[in-house]
Amino acid sequence: xxxxxxxxxxxxxxxxxxxxxxxxxxxxxxxxxxxxxxxxxxxxxxxxxxxxxxxxxxxxxxxxxxxxxxxxxxxxxxxxxxxxxxxxxxxxxxxxxxxxxxxxxxxxxxxxxxxxxxxxxxxxxxxxxxxxxxxxxxxxxxxxxxxxxxxxxxxxxxxxxxxxxxxxxxxxxxxxxxxxxxxxxxxxxxxxxxxxxxxxxxxxxxxxxxxxxxxxxxxxxxxxxxxxxxxxxxxxxxxxxxxxxxxxxxxxxxxxxxxxxxxxxxxxxxxxxxxxxxxxxxxxxxxxxxxxxxxxxxxxxxxxxxxxxxxxxxxxxxxxxxxxxxxxxxxxxxxxxxxxxxxxxxxxxxxxxxxxxxxxxxxxxxxxxxxxxxxxxxxxxxxxxxxxxxxxxxxxxxxxxxxxxxxxxxxxxxxxxxxxxxxxxxxxxxxxxxxxxxxxxxxxxxxxxxxxxxxxxxxxxxxxxx
Length: 466
Prior knowledge:
The N and C termini lie far apart (80 Å). 48% of the residues lie in helices and 12% in strands. It is α/β, with parallel strands linked by helices.
C-alpha cells in the first residue's frame, strides 16, 4: 500500500521541490503552506506521513502536529526546523514526532528520514498485533484428521485460499472454525500480512463498533484519544470475525460496506477511510434462519456466503477422534514433562462411542485432564470423566425400542453390575471405584426395584463368592 504524504511548508519553492521528489518515488503527495490549509487537508485527505515545518507564516507547526495525531494516531511526523528552533523541535519529539531534520538538508536526507520513520511505525504495529495474538492465544496447529469429512474441508480451504472472496465458516461450537481461518490465511497471498481476530459476542454493541472501526477523540465518554480499529490494523491481511451472527443490524450494514470495498468512518468520525482486508467470518448459528427471522441482513449473508466451509462435528469424523486424542495426549504429556502416554484399547472404544457435544475443544480438555491424572504410560478408563463412561454405558444398554425407557433403578443396577464385572467381581474394589462402601454397594444391589438384568454366568460365581 502506497503511503500518502502531507507536506506543510510555507516556502513555496522548497515545498515544490519536496513534492516533486516524493512524487518521483511513487508517493501520493499534498503540499500546503499554512496551518489552516493543513487542517483542511487532514480532514479531507488522510495522510500516513506528515512533513512539517515548525515555523509557519500563520503560527507554530505544533498546532498541526496535535491535530494530526488526533485524526490519525499512527501518522508518521517528521519535523523540519532551523537550528534556532531546536528546542521547539525537541518538544515536538516529545509530542510524538518521529524524527527531526535541521535546515538546510539534502533531499536524500529527508527521504532516508521518512523511510526510517515508516519502518519504526510498521515495527510498532507488528508488536501490537503480536501482543494481541498472544492475548487471544491464536492456535497455529495444522488441521489434523484423515476422515473424508475433514478432507472435504481441507480441499475447500486449498481451493478458496487464493481467491479474494470473503469466506463464511459454519459449524458447531468447538469444531475448530478458528483453526480453519488460520489455515485459510496461511495459504493465501495475504500470509505475509496480519491475521487479526475478534469474537463479536465478547463486546457490547458500542464497544464492538469501536473495536472494529476505531473511534475519534470524544466519540464517547472514555474516548480520550483517537484510536485505529481492527479493520485498519488488519490492512493487507485477514480479519477473522468469530460469531459474526452476534453483530447488530447497524454494524452489519457497516460491515457490508467494507466487504463490498466501500469506505467507512470511525465512531464519531467525519472522514472516509478505506482498508484492504479480507474478511473471514464464522458462526455456530443458522444464519439462513436468522435472515428469515429478520435478525441478519440478507444482503450481508449472501455476500459472506459466496464460499461456505462447513466444519463437521467430531461425532461425524470416525477414527479422527483417536488421532486427535493421541496428539493432544502427547502434547500434554510433553508439557508436563511426562513420558509418552498411549491409549488403552478400552479407552479407544469409549472415545469412539461418545458423542462429543463439545467437539474437538471438549476432546482436547479431556486429554489435558487425563494427562495430569495418569501416572503410568497407558491411559486407563478410570481417568476419563464420568459423563463419557456413563454416556457410552447408556448407549450400549439402550433398548432398541425408543418407547421403552429404563427406570433409574434399572440403570443403576446395570451400571453397578458392569463396574463389578470390570473388577472381576471384587466388590471392595468396585465400591472404591464408585465412591461407596462395600456394604452400601451390596445394599444397593439388593434394594433395586423391578425386574433387573441378572448377572452373566461369568459374573455370578464371583459375585456370590464375594
